[in-house]
Design a protein that fits this description.
CATH superfamily of the largest domain: P-loop containing nucleotide triphosphate hydrolases
Bound molecules: adenosine-5'-triphosphate, magnesium ion
CATH class of the largest domain: Alpha Beta
CATH topology of the largest domain: Rossmann fold
Number of helices: 11
Order of helices and strands: EEEHEEHEHHHHHEHEHEEHHEE
Length: 339
């Protein structure tokens, strides 16, 4: 259990009304065309995020979490073929021309990536990067943008904000860089933040501080947050709902408390069993046998079947994502409560 766990108790989730929904992703699919045809990378991904809500996108490496986020942000590679609908604050954005989409997304979505060095420019001062963003998206004067940038750095816990604005990203520690990324992400007053493994590259103490800061920001600014992570403890402690992905598919979707405590999909169960100390025996760790099949080599039917102890002939047919006891599950043989 990480240090922040005790302090990050999420309140009960109220049902979201249509007016509260910030992001709606409906039947999103993404593939790349090659000589053999279309190579699917993600298929039929659907979920929504309401104001003030954190939704976790969770799964092993290569399951399609980041590529799903890139499709939402409108930064998927040019050769990607994307289907489905993405709706931001009631406006369908998936069909917009790239320029309009960038404008809308720059203003209404903030991004935080795993490695801030790839997102922040190494030879532009931090102040220049922040004021450019503020001036471009909000039309602020240079002086107003500088004041706002200093306020934002102050807000995310960076001391000597005016001095830091004159400095460069390589002069900062990993935790400070991630605070700058958070300041940039919230700078234009977005309604949605997409955070792709924002703490993976940080040491444990700093991870806890950055998670606390993100949680504070979400509550204070009533932000919708898509939180991509491998860490199921973070899902349980920090997110209201969870979307579990396996090989490009959503395999379980529900309240994170339910998915973490009592998962219904054997894959989600396997992820939880692989967390050290998930049960009373703090040393037990049960890895899921095998690996995620590479794209292009997904089995017909249930993609998890080759790794699943419950699979039988029926699993040669692809299951639909259907309501089970407490969550939506894509499985012919979902688990009953707490197995
Ligand atoms: N530009 C691309 N062209 C072809 N395949 C790609 C491209 N980008 C990603 N992929 C493939 O899409 C699949 C999903 O990748 P993605 O980066 O979304 O995984 P992920 O779930 O974010 O994994 P991780 O936890 O390691 O970050 C991977 O098999 C990856 O190789
Ligand atoms: Mg990723």
């Amino acid at each position: 259990m990480t240090a922040q766990s005790a302090s990050l108790q999420t309140p009960p989730v109220q049902p979201a009304t249509a007016r509260d929904i910030v992001l709606e992703v409906k039947d999103l699919s993404l593939g790349f065309r090659n000589a053999d045809g279309l190579l699917p990378i993600v298929t039929d991904v659907s979920f929504s995020i309401a104001k003030g809500e954190a939704v976790a996108l969770v799964g092993e490496s290569g399951c399609g979490k980041s590529i799903t986020a890139s499709a939402i942000m409108g930064i998927a590679p040019d050769n990607a073929e994307i289907g489905g609908t993405i709706i931001l604050n009631g406006t369908p954005i998936s069909g917009l021309p790239p320029k309009e989409r960038r404008k809308l997304c720059g203003r209404h979505m903030g991004f935080i990536f795993q490695e801030p060095m790839t997102a922040l420019h190494p030879t532009l001062s931090i102040g220049r990067q922040m004021t450019d963003t503020l001036r471009h998206n909000l039309g602020l004067s240079h002086a107003a943008a500088t004041d706002r940038a200093a306020e934002l750095l102050d807000r995310v816990g960076i001391p000597r904000a005016r001095d830091i604005l004159k400095g460069y990203v390589h002069e900062l520690s990993g935790g400070m860089r991630q605070r700058v990324m958070i300041a940039l992400a919230i700078s234009c007053g977005p309604s949605l933040i997409i955070a792709d493994e924002p703490t993976t590259a940080l040491d444990v103490t700093i991870q806890a501080q950055v998670l606390d800061l993100l949680d504070d920001m979400r509550r204070e600014l009533n932000l919708a947050m898509l939180f991509i992570t491998h860490d199921l403890e973070v899902v349980g402690d920090f997110c209201d709902r969870a979307v579990v992905m396996y090989a490009g598919d959503v395999v379980e979707r529900g309240l994170s408390a339910d998915v973490v405590r009592s998962p219904a999909h054997p894959y989600a169960r396997g992820l939880i069993d692989a967390v050290p100390g998930h049960d009373d025996n703090r040393t037990r760790l049960t890895p899921i046998l095998g690996t995620v099949p590479p794209v292009g080599q997904w089995p017909q039917g249930c993609r998890f079947a080759p790794r699943c102890s419950r699979a039988d002939a029926k699993c040669q047919t692809r299951p639909a994502l259907e309501a089970h006891i407490r969550s939506d599950v894509r499985c012919w043989y979902p688990l009953e409560a707490a197995q």
